[in-house]
Write the structure tokens for this entry.
Amino acid sequence: LRAGRGGRFSQFTEMAIPLCLGDYFGRFRSVGTTSDFFEKLTFGEDGDRQYAFAEGRNFQVTGEKYGYFEAVVGATVAREMALELGQKISPTHGDPEQGGAAHAAGFYVVGILEPSGTPNDRAVFVNIEGFYLMEDHAKPIETSDELFSTGTARPVHDHRLPLPLEQREVTAVLVRTVNPIVSAGIQNTINEGQTAQAVLPVLEIFLLFDTFVRPLQRVLLLLTVMICVVSGVGILVSIYNSMSERRHEIAVIRALGAGRNTVVTLILLESVFLSLAGGALGWTLGHGLNRLASPRIEQQTGVKVGFFDLAPPVNLAEMLGADSSIAWVQKLRVSSELLLIPGLIALAILVGLVPAIAAYRTDVAEALDS
């Protein structure tokens, strides 16, 4: 764009952010990009969260102190590699586990991101201008000698000058179109050619979840239902077996003036209490295990799991068949974990009916004589 070049899809493009991959810093990816990555991209479920800096600032095209060699590091990288502002880092050309060698030149940390719970916590972002000036990052061109002689190109390793456009190439470009409707058309047009491949990240993620994650969710849901049913049967058997030992107590309560409905209510309340107590204990143990495993999960995936983090919310109105286009319907979102509370109460009442009916039919005179 700075060169004044037009683009085939420029009228349909709101934003384009280049990405250059291939280097590593330790076990973390080094990504060459522009400052727009943190200024224009958002994240979060509703896409309304901005990237924030715990320390420092975003890198610039060319800084006063470090020139083109400024870097921003994710929260996980900064913590594990003990990085501080102003510290110099030297990325490795290629995977270090497969023999990649560290670059002679390096970048200086000017910003440390706050934790975002995204893969960007586990990446090093460097100024793309500096990335191009690293050794072996320039695209070889056949006419380089001619360009140098005419003064239209610069030496690749002259760190004072940016790399000429003819020697640049990118791994990928993040594109935001002016309207989602044109995205599919652009994708098809690009994929029909031989120079690049376009993908819709949301579609790929949806296919991943639909193919692998959703079947596992259904299996886990089935196991959860089976466990709840077995637990309900256990509550039923426990209360029902105790009825023979408490027939005298029930008879005394009845003799003191309590009605049959009062006795039934007491039995149902006992069932509900046992169910909720078991659910609360299970919830606490489950979230406690999540919290204990959180460091390991964060190390492997970059996702931090807290004790009070709940399952993703679901829309109750949509589940009941309401029109999802209505504004108030879209706001009726609640965590699926909170739905366990009415579910446990309903299950407890259901399994408590059998012993409650037995208590309802207790003969007072016979029970007092026994």
Notes: Residues 146-157 have pLDDT under 50 and may be disordered. The first helix runs from residue 36 to 39. The first strand starts at residue 13 and ends at 25.
